[in-house]
Here is the input.
Amino acid sequence: MEVTRLLHITLLITLLLYFCQAYNYETYFYKQKVDHFSFADPDTFNLRYLINDDFWDGNGGPIFFYAGNEGDITLFADNTGFMWDIAPEFNALVIFAEHRYYGVSLPYGNDSFTKLKYTGYLTSEQALADYVELITYLKSAIDGAKNSTVVAFGGSYGGMLAAWFRMKYPHVVQGAIASSAPILQFTDITPCEDFGKLVTADFSKESPECANVIRNSWAAIDSVTRNEAGLAWLTQAWSLCKPLKTPQDITSLKNYLVNVWTNLAMVDYPYPANFLAPLPAYPIKVVCSHLTEANNDPKPLLEEVFQGLTVYFNYTGDSKCLDINQQADSRLDDYGWDFQACTEMVMPFCYNGVEDFFEPAPWDFKSFAQTCYQTWGVYPRPFMAVHMYGGKDISAASNIVFTNGLLDPWSTGGVLWNVSETVVSLIIPEGAHHLDLRGSNPDDPPSVIQARMIEKTHIQNWIDEYSARYDE
Amino acid sequence: MEVTRLLHITLLITLLLYFCQAYNYETYFYKQKVDHFSFADPDTFNLRYLINDDFWDGNGGPIFFYAGNEGDITLFADNTGFMWDIAPEFNALVIFAEHRYYGVSLPYGNDSFTKLKYTGYLTSEQALADYVELITYLKSAIDGAKNSTVVAFGGSYGGMLAAWFRMKYPHVVQGAIASSAPILQFTDITPCEDFGKLVTADFSKESPECANVIRNSWAAIDSVTRNEAGLAWLTQAWSLCKPLKTPQDITSLKNYLVNVWTNLAMVDYPYPANFLAPLPAYPIKVVCSHLTEANNDPKPLLEEVFQGLTVYFNYTGDSKCLDINQQADSRLDDYGWDFQACTEMVMPFCYNGVEDFFEPAPWDFKSFAQTCYQTWGVYPRPFMAVHMYGGKDISAASNIVFTNGLLDPWSTGGVLWNVSETVVSLIIPEGAHHLDLRGSNPDDPPSVIQARMIEKTHIQNWIDEYSARYDE
Here is the structure.
């Protein structure tokens, strides 16, 4: 009896640690220029950053700098345990900088997304320049930081930023850990169908039946929702927060599903986690345990699908209904990313329904561009990122570790080969989206443990190399 | 008699070649975005570029790309004979791109310098992005250029651009010849007095007396121009186009002199040339041959000075009067550079009159910034270039040849050490400002001949290295 109780308490503490990983930091703001590259706009704004010096060797110890990506920076601070785990052994100062136009770092406050003349400064180049100014300021303002080695960290788009940061400003960052950074997910570099194929593979690996249930679900939705009774049935069967009424609602529902299956592939971690949503260990396995009868009639098939969806939207049991407008942690702000995807971060995706389980959808740049223009008043520049950062041609770079998990659909746009002696690629076969950046966990597969060790070796090399300048 | 005549004709042809070096090119325009880094301003403009394919191997031959600097691009095309000289042996396509806001590449036409919202896009970052877009376009548009190696060339600020171009966009340019590129002429890197000391040394090397005449001339001007008679005398003695009247006129006159002595140090070439002005060989020697009596009274001293000035402003004998507003070739547009110097290219200069021959003038950033604000409505960002490009910390760069002539005062802000195996510094002891970029000349000193040979070796290496990618 006592033992069972103790087990329960242990389980409770473990769950608390998983879901409320609270790291310690102080919050500051740094005044940034809205435009770092021209002088036509004199505006400034406050960029938020988080800082922790608990472990720091104030006599030149390194700076671990997280290059914030598309969300509230606290989300990334809470989900980048690797930096916190290794900060003590490196005696590092830990900094998380928020990406402009996300979280509370809004250059024009509530107006930031209202007009192109306000929103237009949301680009990766401007964000990197923010980080240059912030680090330069901190190194001069913090006693003992003047000669500190700076290591950039980032996952996903943050990993792209970390890698590009080192490429463009090697005098500011001495090395970069770029985790799950799809710097090749651009036009004419990575085939648009690869991403969806890998999402599908993650499910069909559990069981081909599971993937087939999803593949068949699109037609089942269409068939069921042809009339009002069906719309009402699905609304009720799936506990939707808002009743389905129009064809647009069906499109939104399908978009939600596309995102859920994709997100599950991204966060298929080997232990319970709460990155995009609170989820059990290996969530795809759990989802697929419900998706077993692909040949069912539409209604029973969709009931199966709902059992799977429940794992995603209601693992905690706290959700009263399924809100198809809430695809992931609300701290991931889709507004800003929609603008970035419509301007510089044009990443082509396409599905054919055969090699993947999605509804067939070709990549239609023209219609995509038209939608962007309607939404934001701007046409995309699909080659901007490649022209700026080089696409596949990164042979002149140095001191970057690219890591990719092979479960992660974003790995299809990642750097999967060793570029040079100092620009290396680590493959984590059992890894999902930036698993290596998460805190260490008893259930980590050996491949991620090894990847982290190699990352640490590189970090030490960068520190040794840079420190040697000041030892002479 | 006949021999003398032949000599005369030969001399005439030689002079014609010196002064009318006409290289062959076609002129084109490419539509550029005014702002490459943000989406707030949708404007575009036409950037001029010159192109010559006479020598080009249209099957992947290299592209020699001059990164235009602060002037009409034809001036640089006419004065960068090195590129034209070696294009045939490399079978290279020759391109000269005009820098935005100079020559005819004015983003807002005649309004370009009227308002900060028009002028504000005149920065080195935007100019480099223009070149990225232009080269990327040309490589895709010109048959056979797709896999061409691109070598950037530039002198002075153009050399800074060439070096930075390689640092920031190594996927676009495979190597850079950065001639007399003072990338270290910024706050807290190079002492502000070094430049004036080297100008002075160029004159005192001819004779200490020569430098002393100039050193004494400032007081002589003050003494003579104390009254109206003196102002009239100096106006007449120096054949000034506009009579001296106000103290402001005296300041302008002195500024003119500072520029003349500086320009002479820059273009102290071993043969007659016409870069900033038509000048004889070793113009400082010729000037100094007139500046021999430093202890003269003010008026005879200033008469001496005028003899020296005549070498600069009227070597051709065509000038009817001395125009102190015409400091150099009118194709060097001071308007744009004044804005750049007031914003990003803040280069501190100071004089003490002891180690140099100028009137003492400390570097007064505050008053400089105030003047900039009054003129342009903008405050300088003195650390912008260093934050963007790294200042002295260029250890991560590759494939750059920095060349500096030790006669050239800009060499004090140049890279005078080998940074790595592929980022090297070539010193040309007898060289003035980017002498190596000029066409070969019978009177070239051996050091520049050797420098050019080493430059060619590096260029060949870059071509070999890049071409190897496509041979496999």
Summary: Residues 14-20 of chain B have pLDDT under 50 and may be disordered.
